[in-house]
Amino acid sequence: MSAVTKGVPRLALKDVLSQGRTAFATFNVFGGSRVAQVLAHTGVDAVIVDREHGHVDDSQMHDMVPTVASSGVSPIVRIAGFKGSEIKRALDTGAHGIIAPMVSTAEDARLVVRQSKFPPVGTRGQGSPFACFSYGFATPAEYVAHANEQILVMAQIETSEAVDNVYEICQVDGLDLLLIGPNDLSLAILGYAPPKGNEEIYYSSIDKVVATAKKYGKYVGMVVVDGASAKAASENFDLVVLTADGRALQAWYRKEVAIARS
């Protein structure tokens, strides 16, 4: 990578992962750059702008991503789906990576990778004047020259089919990380969520994903609900996603209001 302008944001998430350390992130479900800015100053390595389940539109995404990047934290976008223009729109904001939900086959993973990479590796079109700034480049040409190697492409593993196909998924070139979606995976395997803690078929499926990802040199991540769970998960996972702003806000108020009324 060429020298970047002094003082620009680092690729925080990619840096942490490449150094072999566990990275921590959180989902940002509330639209608006101020919420994203607050989350970026909590000590996380990445803020995941949630276009799948969050209340975030395209315009808000374009404001939130550079706000996070300017705070020295990696903006990642969980896209609503991987067909159509979702990936292109997310990456054109300057996102340091994307998370594609419901990736269940190797062909799904290849499609995600193709849409995330510029030719000759993929089919992504070039035209955004904005993406370069979140990477510390001054011009789109610099960004295009390095984007293929710098963008993190992540797939969410959350179906029984994905677990069955995880060996093939992990062999897809250009796919960097598998993120386990515990609630949807629990629904798919057990028929309910969250798991109760003793369902062998569920936990063995997670072990299979983790072992296969490591075998094929892919990073692997998990979503958790609190700091204690995050600390425990950091022993086995490269990326730990610590809840979401909406759930954290509600949990804090419920706890404190209950204390106030006691």
UniProtKB/TrEMBL annotation:
Keywords: Lyase, Metal-binding. Residues 35-231 form the HpcH/HpaI aldolase/citrate lyase domain. It comes from the Eukaryota. GO terms for molecular function: aldehyde-lyase activity; metal ion binding. GO terms for cellular component: cytoplasm. InterPro entries: Aldolase/citrate-lyase_domain, HpcH-HpaI_aldolase, Pyrv/PenolPyrv_kinase-like_dom, Pyrv_kinase-like_dom_sf. PANTHER family: 2-KETO-3-DEOXY-L-RHAMNONATE ALDOLASE, HPCH_HPAI ALDOLASE_CITRATE LYASE DOMAIN-CONTAINING PROTEIN. This is HpcH/HpaI aldolase/citrate lyase domain-containing protein. It comes from Zasmidium cellare ATCC 36951.
